[in-house]
Design a protein that fits this description.
Blueprint lengths: L8 H4 L1 H14 L4 E4 L1 H7 L8 E4 L3 H10 L3 E6 L4 E6 L2 E7 L1 E6 L4 E5 L3 H6 L9 E2 L5 E2 L5 H7 L8 H7 L3 H12 L6 H9 L9 H12 L5 H10 L1 H5 L7 H12 L6 H8 L4 H10 L4 H9 L13 H11 L1 H14 L6 H13 L9 H6 L6 H16 L6 H14 L3
Parallel strand pairs: 2-5
Antiparallel strand pairs: 1-2, 1-8, 3-4, 4-5, 6-7, 8-9
Helix pairs in contact: 2-4, 8-9, 8-10, 8-11, 10-14, 13-14, 13-18, 15-16, 17-18, 18-19, 21-22
């Protein structure tokens, strides 16, 4: 019996239908099939984000077919046979069936074919080498893709070492797919091949490595995959700053138990020691955005000390010093590293304060400092800092008059 996913809503959507009809109007019925993640995820009843299509049409034929239907065609990877169709403002990636002629671990020279089995043979894992026609009938050229998907097996198509030599980033893809779809023991042959070729990851771009790593860390529970990466030596190659995994594992546990949203950036920070320099160097090496780098560095350091028994007053001081987001991040990391069994309410209370308490603005302006007799120059900043320290110590006193009196006292006590 042929497996089928039926005709799902994403398949019957008019935007999808327009693309498939355009291709079949030129190449005939069956010239185009859905491929990869959309088929796999539908088979597993998981959400479908991207719709990829494989076709026996050549790239120029694909472009003509798409444009003839009044849709937009973008030659996003024409040398590899990839054209992106825009239908109802949505992208659909269409790739001509192909096989590799030459590879160097980063780039491939391909030749086009009309053989679906040849196309499947160059894909990474058997559960990704799945195709489905417009009616939902599944085509499984390796004969094991459907079974792998249902069993949670991540197995390379053919020889693992050969697949990895075609693209060394597939080492990280193996662990990423294991994090998202794997169950039970990892495939021994795949794991051995990844470990043997781990040093070749240095040939991959930092951006591609970071993208794969953060996708892996976005899985509901990436702990088994990260343990495998550490045991195989892959983790130390891509993330030499990583040390003890206990804080990372604790963070995933906290997120899971408390139903927090998975946070791949914070999980990445949890893998690395709380050292601002190390986190900054890692962010630069992985070509992370400035916002990501800033967030990672903001969670570093031991001051102010974050503990579950902080008083509300101490917590407010910490929020003022760090900002709401950095304080919340530090709470989660401290919670992850602590004995979590008995103090969950305290940690949750601190998080609630971080999310609901907005630090008030400092009530003294620069003009008011000058009016108190402080001359322009560095003394203005010094006086401001001293009054601000007093104001914070008073738990953000709302009495403007008292703040002005304190300003006068500080100004009078300075030797100009």
């Amino acid at each position: 019996m042929t497996d089928s996913i039926g005709v799902r809503p994403w398949m019957s959507d008019p935007a999808t239908q327009a693309v498939m009809n355009a291709l079949e109007a030129v190449g005939g019925a069956g010239c185009a099939r859905y491929v990869g993640g959309c088929v796999r995820n539908t088979l597993l009843n998981r959400p479908v984000d991207d719709i990829d299509i494989a076709t026996s049409l050549l790239p120029d034929e694909t472009i003509k077919a798409i444009e003839a239907a009044g849709l937009r065609a973008i030659p996003t990877g024409i040398e590899h046979g990839t054209v992106t169709a825009i239908s109802n403002s949505r992208p659909f990636e269409i790739t001509t069936l192909r096989h590799d002629v030459e590879t160097d671990g980063r780039h491939a020279v391909v030749a086009f074919t009309d053989d679906w089995a040849q196309d499947a043979a160059r894909r990474d894992f058997r559960l990704n080498a799945l195709y489905a026609d417009a009616a939902g009938a599944i085509f499984d050229p390796t004969g094991e893709g459907v079974a792998d998907a249902k069993a949670g097996r991540i197995v390379f198509v053919g020889d693992p070492a050969t697949r990895i030599e075609e693209d060394y980033l597939r080492i990280l893809r193996f662990f990423r797919f294991f994090a998202w779809y794997g169950r039970g023991e990892a495939d021994a042959a795949a794991l051995a091949a990844c470990g043997a070729a781990k040093d070749m990851l240095a040939r991959c771009s930092a951006e591609r490595i970071a993208k794969e790593l953060l996708k892996l860390l976005a899985a509901d529970d990436p702990r088994p995959a990260v343990r495998l990466m550490a045991a195989s030596g892959v983790l130390s190659v891509i993330l030499p700053e990583a040390g003890d995994l206990s804080r990372f594992e604790g963070l995933v546990e906290v997120e899971t138990e408390q139903l927090f949203t998975c946070d791949p950036d914070l999980r990445l920070a949890a893998l690395v020691a709380s050292d601002e320099t190390a986190l900054g160097a890692m962010a630069d090496r992985l070509r992370l955005s400035n916002a990501q780098k800033g967030r990672l560095q903001a969670v570093a350091g031991d001051e102010p000390r974050i503990v579950s028994w902080m008083s509300p007053r101490e917590a407010r001081r910490a929020v003022y010093a760090l900002g709401q987001n950095a304080f919340a991040d530090r709470i989660k990391l401290a919670w992850a590293a602590a004995d979590r069994s008995a103090v969950t309410p305290q940690w949750r209370g601190l998080l609630a304060l971080a999310e609901t308490w907005t630090p008030p603005p400092f009530p003294i302006s620069g003009d008011e400092i000058l009016s108190a007799g402080v001359p322009k120059g560095p003394l203005v900043g010094q006086v401001r800092r001293e009054v601000e320290t007093w104001w914070v110590d008073q738990d953000f006193l709302e009495d403007k008059f008292s703040a002005i009196e304190r300003l006068k006292a500080v100004a009078q006590g300075l030797a100009y």
